[in-house]
């Protein structure tokens, strides 16, 4: 959130639990839930900041806090969408941590396993540029009933 605070006002909508995206043949792929500490010796998908700003930082925070380790990132080619990044996990044998809302995506060769660690969450934010707020953004904030919680 600090990354956005210089140029944007941010509004936190919710905290979303995490899932691990694993190659389909991964040793933990059949589990219903896993702990982040079980991922200590894995290669993690490294995401360019131009594709998903702050992703690597958040994944590192989760690994340090809940697993007591620093993730070993594997750089991969740039991608255009979340779905493409998840497919890379299956093809490059690198795992990733993601917000649970990616579960609806049907990606070949990967499984998504819930993270059991309480508090291993992702913030869902609405960001708006400082200055004049466009009418659609204002309408969204009003519809969510969160106008009074806007941070600066």
Description:
- With 152 residues, the protein is α/β, with parallel strands linked by helices.
- It has a domain at 16-121: D-Maltodextrin-Binding Protein, domain 2 (3-Layer(aba) Sandwich), CATH 3.40.190.10.
- Helices cover 25% and strands 30% of the residues.
- The protein contains 4 helices and 7 strands.
- The chain has helices spanning 2-5, 55-67, 82-92, 135-144, and strands at residues 8-23, 33-34, 43-46, 72-75, 96-99, 110-115, 121-129.
- Strands 1, 2, 5, 6 and 7 form a 5-stranded mixed β-sheet that branches. It has a two-stranded parallel ribbon with strand order 3-4.
- The longest helix is centred in the middle third of the chain and has 13 residues, at 55-67.
- The chain is globular, with a radius of gyration of 17 Å.
- Mean pLDDT is 84; it is low at 148-152.
Descriptive keywords:
30% strand; two-stranded parallel sheet; disordered C terminus; globular; five-stranded mixed sheet; 4 helices; alpha/beta; 152 residues; single chain; D-Maltodextrin-Binding Protein, domain 2; 7 strands
């Amino acid at each position: 959130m600090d990354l956005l605070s210089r140029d944007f006002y941010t509004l936190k909508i919710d905290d979303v639990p995490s899932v691990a995206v694993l190659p389909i043949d991964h040793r933990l792929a059949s589990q219903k839930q896993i702990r982040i500490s079980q991922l200590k010796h894995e290669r993690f998908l490294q995401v360019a900041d131009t594709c998903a700003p702050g992703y690597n930082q958040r994944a590192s925070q989760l690994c340090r806090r809940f697993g007591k380790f620093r993730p070993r990132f594997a750089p991969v080619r740039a991608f255009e969408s979340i779905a493409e990044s998840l497919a890379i996990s299956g093809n490059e044998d690198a795992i990733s941590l993601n917000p649970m809302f990616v579960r609806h995506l049907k990606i070949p060769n990967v499984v998504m396993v819930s993270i059991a660690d309480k508090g291993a969450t992702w913030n869902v934010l609405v960001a708006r540029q400082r200055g004049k707020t466009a009418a659609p953004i204002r309408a969204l904030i009003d519809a969510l009933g969160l106008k009074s919680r806007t941070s600066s």
